[in-house]
Automatic annotation (TrEMBL), chain A:
Sequence similarity: Belongs to the binding-protein-dependent transport system permease family.
Protein name: Carbohydrate ABC transporter permease
Lineage: Bacteria, Pseudomonadati, Pseudomonadota, Alphaproteobacteria, Rhodobacterales
Alphabetical GO biological process terms: transmembrane transport
Domain named ABC transmembrane type-1: residues: 108-298
Record's keyword annotation contains Cell membrane: yes
Entry keywords, A to Z: Cell membrane, Membrane, Transmembrane, Transmembrane helix, Transport
Cell location: Cell membrane
Chief subcellular location: membrane
Automatic annotation (TrEMBL), chain B:
SUPFAM superfamilies, alphabetized: MOP-like (SSF50331), P-loop containing nucleoside triphosphate hydrolases (SSF52540)
Domain of life where this protein originates: Bacteria
GO cellular component terms, semicolon-separated: ATP-binding cassette (ABC) transporter complex, substrate-binding subunit-containing
Protein's UniProt name: ABC transporter ATP-binding protein
Protein family according to the UniProt entry: Belongs to the ABC transporter superfamily.
Organism: Pseudotabrizicola algicola
Length: 313, 331
């Protein structure tokens, strides 16, 4: 007979909880699994009815994602030399040849530059602003904080037309800088408010101790406040990245050629040579990876929690 | 090594007046203990000298130079906070080394290691050097916090109840250790405490604060034997001074006297008027008597091995008591 604990949940309630969590995970992960598997299906398999759960894996979707292809006449096709590479071979199976690389790689890099660039800028500016709001006597502090928050109260797309016109005048349309600034403007309110909350929790005594220990205010900020705010910075960064990475409406409106990100690009794949679901699914799969990797890398900070231990409350 | 001067310093937090027109000169190498209840302005005084607060009125000087425009780093002071304020993301070793790595000092790492080791040894926290600062007991944190002040040799040490959460034995040891450090370094110390033994044994000077005002500044003996008011008289002395109406023991009081203050040494047992023993507290090295004298209660000391018990009657007589007027001021 094991000891009975008042605070430990019983074995039954633990199993029920585990079951619920697993059930929820299955429901949320099923669509992701479907996208992942469709990416490795052949064209006919992807649209077969009833849907195929077991299928012969193919890299057709990924090859199509990264290439543009043309259909050539039967005579020309027969006269071609044997395929040189594995992806040539896959393309030939559907009676086409590779005409050149697609723009997916370029669009993906745009997403990386704009997503991470605006996240970095939001966190950089947000941390400094949050620190100032948390520690200094800022005139009209509450009004300013409310003003910052209020930029979040309206759906960003409501100002799409003015922004479109302004960007056209300023020459920021379809530029990386323009998109970074735009996403930073949307994210900065979230960043300031979240980070202010985290910095408020860090007792001032640490900085005061550092000031007396011979450090300047900025050095105290860097050596004492920043390491302790790491948890907050990491979670705020994930929120900012997820928004900037997934943003669709502004990207459609403001980018077309040069700075187009992956979200508006992926749906256009479907128009190239019929309904190419495997290529769309392959694009979606690759698109999911960076945020996933970023979150996993910062997981340690997210889980660690904030340390309050060394100040007697 | 520095002389610290406060000249008419005033400071308020919102509506509360934290300090009012405080002036004192802390001589070079002095060990000044600040006494007063919570909210009297002791911690504010330390923070003003450290440069963490700016006074609204008056001037603060170190070695005759005004330091109002100097940052805490430029003032070259060390402070032990009441809330230990160890850097939670650093190990004990790095906490102790933190002041030595400051851009003001830039010591070579070998010397830093040696100094950290020496301080850790004197505070008996050597075995905890590699611990995280958060993985310590309260007493250990407090010692690390003291250690962080001791690793460098600043002009002034400011300590805000540094020994308050230590057990009795460690407290006694560190009291001696701090006094030794004071004697060795000849540095100026400003020390806040509630503990009478710390005040009497360590201080060269005691300053008594009352609601932001400095009411008396002198040697511990002056404060104890020659207090300016009932307020100051109640700060020191165990048991506390007993205050009675001036005429309690019959005539003989000065004209303006309203109260008489009796410390144990002001009460002669065995002659005079009758009092009843209410309670006998045997503390080992001393025995306290709680006496009922008419409607009043008097607490005094007697022989540790006294055979007296509750309910018995004894005779008592005041001897050179302290006289106070109706406002509590000394006559």
């Amino acid at each position: 007979m094991s000891a009975y604990s008042v605070t430990e949940p019983s074995r039954l309630s633990k199993s029920v909880a585990a079951l619920l969590v697993v059930g929820y995970a299955v429901i949320t992960l099923l669509p992701l699994l479907w996208i992942l598997s469709t990416g490795f299906k052949s064209g006919p398999d992807s649209i077969s009815y009833p849907p195929k759960v077991l299928f012969e894996p193919s890299l057709e979707g990924y090859v199509n994602l990264f290439t543009t292809r043309t259909r050539i006449g039967a005579e020309q096709f027969a006269a071609l030399p044997p395929p040189e590479t594995w992806y040539d071979k896959i393309v030939r199976q559907s009676g086409t040849v590779i005409a050149g690389p697609s723009r997916f790689g370029e669009r993906f890099m745009n997403s990386v530059i704009i997503g991470f660039g605006s996240t970095f800028l939001s966190i950089f500016l947000g941390t400094l602003a949050a620190y100032a709001f948390s520690r200094f006597r800022v005139p009209l502090k509450d009004d300013l904080l409310f003003f910052i928050l209020s930029t979040r109260m309206m759906p960003p797309i409501a100002v799409a037309i003015p922004i479109y016109l302004m960007y056209r005048e300023l020459g920021l349309s379809d530029t990386h800088l323009g998109m970074i600034l735009l996403y930073t403007a949307v994210n900065i309110s979230l960043a300031v408010w979240l980070l202010k909350g985290f910095i408020d929790e860090i007792p001032r005594e640490y900085e005061e101790a550092a000031l007396i220990d011979g450090y300047t205010r900025f050095q105290a900020f860097r050596k004492v406040v920043l390491p302790q705010a790491a948890t907050g910075i990491a979670s705020t960064a994930i929120f900012c990245l997820i928004f900037a990475w997934n943003e669709y409406a502004f990207a459609v409106l403001l980018t077309s050629g040069n700075a187009q990100t992956a979200p508006p690009f992926i749906p256009t794949i479907i128009g190239v040579g019929g309904q190419d679901w495997p290529a769309v699914a392959a694009g979606a799969t690759l698109f999911l990876l960076p945020v996933m990797i970023f979150t996993i890398l910062l997981r340690k900070h997210l889980l660690r929690g904030i340390t309050f231990g060394a100040v007697r409350k | 090594m520095a002389e610290v001067g406060l000249h008419g310093v005033g400071m308020s937090y919102g509506a509360t007046q934290a300090l009012q027109d405080v002036s004192m000169t802390i001589p070079d190498g002095a060990f000044v203990v600040l006494l007063g209840p919570t909210g009297a302005g002791k911690t504010t005084t330390l923070r003003l000298i450290a440069g963490l607060e700016r006074p609204e009125h008056g001037d603060i000087t170190i070695d005759g130079q005004s330091v109002l425009r100097d940052t805490p780093a430029q003032r070259d002071v060390a402070m032990v906070f009441q809330q230990y304020s160890l850097y939670p993301h650093l190990s004990v070793r790095d906490n102790l080394a933190f002041p030595l790595r400051s851009p003001m000092l830039r010591l070579p790492e070998a010397e830093i290691a040696a100094r950290v080791q020496a301080v850790a040894r004197s505070l008996r926290i050597e075995h905890k050097l590699n611990n995280k600062a958060t993985a310590l007991s309260g007493g250990e944190m407090q010692r690390v916090s003291i250690g962080r002040a001791l690793v460098r040799q600043p002009r002034i040490y400011l300590m805000d109840e540094p020994l308050s959460s230590l057990d009795a034995k460690l407290r006694a040891d560190l009291r001696v250790e701090l006094k030794r450090i004071h004697a060795d370094l000849g540095a100026t110390f400003l020390y806040v405490t509630h503990d009478q033994i710390e005040a009497m044994t360590m201080a060269t000077h005691v300053g008594v604060l009352d609601q932001g005002r400095l009411v008396q500044f002198g040697t511990p003996r002056e404060i104890y034997e020659d207090p300016v008011s009932t307020y100051v008289a109640s700060r020191l002395g165990q048991p506390r001074i007993t205050l009675l109406p001036a005429g309690s023991f019959g005539p003989g009081a000065p004209a303006a006297a309203a109260q008489m203050g009796l410390r144990p040494e002001h009460i002669v047992i065995g002659e005079g008027q009758s009092a009843t023993v209410r309670r006998v507290e045997r503390l080992g090295d001393q025995t306290r008597l709680h006496l009922a004298f008419g409607p009043h209660e008097i607490v005094t000391l007697t022989d540790p091995h006294t055979p007296l018990a509750a309910g018995e009657s004894i005779a008592i007589r005041p001897q050179n008591p302290l006289w106070f007027d109706a406002h509590g001021n000394r006559i």
